[in-house]
């Protein structure tokens, strides 16, 4: 296997190669460090690279491999989004307003290290993880490896760009309103927002009023399943045989609903290409033996303005108000925080108390179907710099029109995944979104793996790779 094939092999395959002695952990880490040094100055997917620490971790992993030790990710490099604490490394949240470096790893990092992962570095984010584009005053713009004039999405934009360009085999992301699924869609990756609290958020529990979940961005479904097996809360119900086992089993005959309806009171137009992807998926799934119908989710009129936006905006305010240098924040971020401050504790408590009824109405469709499929996004990504001179409200209105299908499921907490679906006329990736029942990542992984087997995407690579 040559170096390019190895770089794009994916985490699960690399773990097998390391265990077999086909490649060493130091050589694998050095491969990525060399690629990052060569490619990332143009891409800017990483905010910081832990080159020396990664080499030390790789050397230690190799000693354990040589001794016969076997762990799920022993010696496999992993990139980490810059809203997750890595001990002794600053968590900047894409801003110069941050405080000192944490002294302890976040719980998800502890679990990744326990599984043997080598932490490569921290990936770029928009300031305070607010936007579906990754551009900041402090650190500049991250570019989409498929076309560097476009954004990779956000807020896990650096994580997606790194994996898509072969600068990491797997990356940790977080998703508070689509922040894993949007960049996965626009970078041609598999991404999954697991069930709320499936992957620990500690020490940032209940982020954005319960909207945020940690999860992976990967080249293959198996890689994402492996990530979940390593990091999931073992006290939460999961599939028999683990998530890798679920991804390896073909699904039973499923009842699948297709919809391109956006939530009410959202102004968005789904492009013909993005709508066509849903219809094409329906034809494929019928050929694979599934029962496919067209049926819309019964979103209440309060979905966006009664659940999603208040929790999102108040979450931004909660994050901003604990920063030690708020005066350094971008004016647009300060504007979003000022809006979020308008939602009092009592108002948020009332909104969260209404979540159960909201979720029950959204999830009523699962009385009749097993999975719902929507477009991954309404349109393709914006060009880098498209929102540079706009304020908070105008930027929010424009970005929501591109990504209307994500945030409702952050408010309900249920698992959702995106599957690559070819390229649009501009040569940029398309995706479809798979929405699952609460706690049912297993069905999403099984169905996604079936689609992957019929329409492989992992060998598609961007020009900047």
UniProtKB/TrEMBL annotation:
Signal peptide interval: none
Name of the protein: amidase
InterPro entries hit by this protein: Amidase, Amidase_CS, Amidase_dom, AS_sf
UniProt keyword Hydrolase, yes or no: yes
Catalytic activity reported: a monocarboxylic acid amide + H2O = a monocarboxylate + NH4(+)
EC number: 3.5.1.4
Major enzyme class: hydrolase
A Pfam short name: Amidase
Domain Amidase: 28-445
Keyword Transferase: yes
Family recorded in the similarity comment: Belongs to the amidase family.
An example molecular function term from Gene Ontology annotations: amidase activity
């Amino acid at each position: 296997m040559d170096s390019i094939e190895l770089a794009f092999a994916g985490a699960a395959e690399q773990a097998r190669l390391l265990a077999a002695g086909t490649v060493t952990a130091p050589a694998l880490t050095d491969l990525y460090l060399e690629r990052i040094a060569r490619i990332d100055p143009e891409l800017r997917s990483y905010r910081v690279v832990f080159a020396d620490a990664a080499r030390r971790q790789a050397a230690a992993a190799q000693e354990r491999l040589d001794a016969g030790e076997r762990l799920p990710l022993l010696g496999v490099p992993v990139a980490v989004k810059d809203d997750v604490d890595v001990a002794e490394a600053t968590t900047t949240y894409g801003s110069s307003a941050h405080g000192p470096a944490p002294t302890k790893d976040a719980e998800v990092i502890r679990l990744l290290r326990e599984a043997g992962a080598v932490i490569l570095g921290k990936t770029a984010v928009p300031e305070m993880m607010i936007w579906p584009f990754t551009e900041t005053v402090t650190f500049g713009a991250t570019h989409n490896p498929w076309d560097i004039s476009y954004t990779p999405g956000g807020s896990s934009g650096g994580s997606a760009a790194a994996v898509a360009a072969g600068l990491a085999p797997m990356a940790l992301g977080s998703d508070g309103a689509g922040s894993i699924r949007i960049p996965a869609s626009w970078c041609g990756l598999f991404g999954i927002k697991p069930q709320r609290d499936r992957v620990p958020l500690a020490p940032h529990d209940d982020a954005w009023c319960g909207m945020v979940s940690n999860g992976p961005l990967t080249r293959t479904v198996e890689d994402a399943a492996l990530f979940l097996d390593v990091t999931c809360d073992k006290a939460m119900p999961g599939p028999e045989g683990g998530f890798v086992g679920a991804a390896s089993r073909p699904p039973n005959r499923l009842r699948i609903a297709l919809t391109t309806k956006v939530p009410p009171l959202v102004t968005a137009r789904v492009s013909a290409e993005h709508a066509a992807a849903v219809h094409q998926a329906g034809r494929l799934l019928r050929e694979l033996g599934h029962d496919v119908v067209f049926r819309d989710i019964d979103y209440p009129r309060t979905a966006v303005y009664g659940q999603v936006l208040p929790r999102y905006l108040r979450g931004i305010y909660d994050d901003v108000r604990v920063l030690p240098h708020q005066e350094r924040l971008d004016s647009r971020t300060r504007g979003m925080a000022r809006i979020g401050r308008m939602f009092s504790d009592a108002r948020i408590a009332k909104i969260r108390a209404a979540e159960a009824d909201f979720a029950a109405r959204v999830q009523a469709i699962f009385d009749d179907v097993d999975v719902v499929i929507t477009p991954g996004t309404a349109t393709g990504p914006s060009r880098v710099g498209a929102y540079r001179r706009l304020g908070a409200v105008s930027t929010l209105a424009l970005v929501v029109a591109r990504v209307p299908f994500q945030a409702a499921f952050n408010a309900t907490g249920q698992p959702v995944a995106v599957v690559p679906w070819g390229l649009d006329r501009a040569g940029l990736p398309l995706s479809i979104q798979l929405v699952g029942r609460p706690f049912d990542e297993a069905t999403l992984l099984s169905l996604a793996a079936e689609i992957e087997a019929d329409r492989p995407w992992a060998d598609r690579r961007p020009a900047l790779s």
